[in-house]
Amino acid sequence: MSARKFLVIDDSKLIHKMFNVMLRQYEVVHAMDGLDGLAKASQHPDIDGILLDINMPKMNGMEFLAAIKADLALKDIPVIIISTEGKEEDTQRAMEAGAYSYIKKPFDHKQLLDVIAGL
Ligand SMILES: [Mg+2]
Known about the structure:
Blueprint: E1 5-9, H1 13-22, E2 27-31, H2 34-43, E3 49-52, H3 61-69, E4 79-84, H4 88-96, E5 101-105, H5 109-117
Parallel strand pairs: 1-2, 1-3, 3-4, 4-5
Helix pairs in contact: 2-3
The site of magnesium ion has 6 residues, from loops.
């Protein structure tokens, strides 16, 4: 069985580095904004989950979520919102828009792995 594969969409290079370490037993695909994320999701329709930032240039996380939920081929991929503290409204809206779960930054390694293990 090949390693499960996750798509990380975030405009912070530091976050991508961190996910490379945290998710080292998985395959990780990287995207720097929502548009890049849509392209990568189309290239990797076999991804097991998406870890999504909200605040990003070009296409933000909410716009990405709406786009992927409207795509029949991609809409069932679970999306986990990685949100910044103090953005409770965004998190709520994301859950209403079909996100699977959310994790608040800063988060710990175990919390993230537990959510991913449950997918
Ligand atoms: Mg951001």
